[in-house]
Write a structure and sequence with these properties.
single chain, 264 residues, alpha/beta
């Protein structure tokens, strides 16, 4: 089977007084309908990868080497923070519809589709929600608005950058259920950008571990969790909160220079 998304030897650099490489030669594949996670700490380059995929890199950065191949019809992105990603001056219903219009729907088609998508993801009081501004809604509902904007065109690939950040566990589980339903209904593939291993275990079949702009480990999620090979992966997994670790000092690897990262 051919990947729906294939990243080959991707380098992304930020230009300043000295050029800084935020992404260093990564390779990543996602197959149709597959849920894949890209995991790493803040600053590892995860979001830079996602912005590269959507052609949304800031002006002071560029892809300096490599190739991104996408064989699907469309891709959408759920951004990290809905309060800053949604326009505070436009009502939420219009913002969802605008995503459909941008993809070629008529205004009427987009409005109908917006209501349909909203109901699919659990927004029942659509009249009130659609006539509200983002600041008038809860964090969970704002996140659903972002998801609705991404799903309105039935994308073949959904890129989700920390979609459950700052949400309570109950709302987080509801968001994960929505993503699974999108996969079941439309065969949507998912690239999940996160540092939350709990979410990864619930949702993704394969995982890529990113450290200082490089992929240091990849594999089936269960195998990576149970038999991590890279010291950084081991450090991340050992840092997952666990009641059995109460009172114990966590291993501290993050100041170590890993053998295969001496040139980073």
């Amino acid at each position: 089977m051919k990947p729906i998304l294939s990243i080959k030897d991707l380098y992304v650099e930020f230009t300043s007084a000295e050029n800084f490489q935020a992404v260093r030669g990564i390779n990543l594949d996602i197959y149709p309908g597959e849920f894949v996670a890209l995991v790493g700490e803040s600053g590892s380059g995860k979001t830079t990868v996602s912005l590269s995929l959507m052609d949304l890199l800031p002006e002071n950065s560029r892809i300096s080497q490599g190739k991104i191949e996408f064989s699907g019809q469309s891709k959408s992105m759920i951004f990290q923070e809905p309060m800053t990603s949604l326009n505070p001056l436009i009502k939420t219903g219009k913002q969802i519809a605008e995503a459909g219009i941008a993809k070629g729907m008529s205004k009427k088609q987009a409005q109908i589709k917006a209501v349909e998508i909203a109901k699919q993801i659990g927004l029942t009081d659509t009249e009130r929600i659609f006539s509200s501004y983002p600041h008038e809604l809860s964090g969970g509902i704002r996140q659903r608005i972002m998801i609705a904007s991404a799903l309105i065109t039935n994308p073949d690939l959904l890129i989700a950058d920390e979609p459950t950040t700052a949400l309570d566990v109950s709302t987080q589980n509801e968001i994960l259920k929505i993503l699974k339903e999108a996969n079941k209904k439309n065969g949507t593939a998912l690239l999940l950008i996160t540092h939350d291993f709990t979410v990864v275990k619930k949702l993704c079949t394969r995982i890529y571990i990113m450290y200082k702009g490089k992929i240091v480990e990849e594999g089936e999620t269960e195998k990576v969790f149970n038999f991590p090979s890279h010291p950084y992966t081991k450090a991340l997994i050992s840092s997952i909160p666990d009641p059995s670790k109460k009172g114990k000092k966590l291993p501290f690897y993050f100041d170590m220079e890993f053998e295969d990262d001496k040139n980073i």
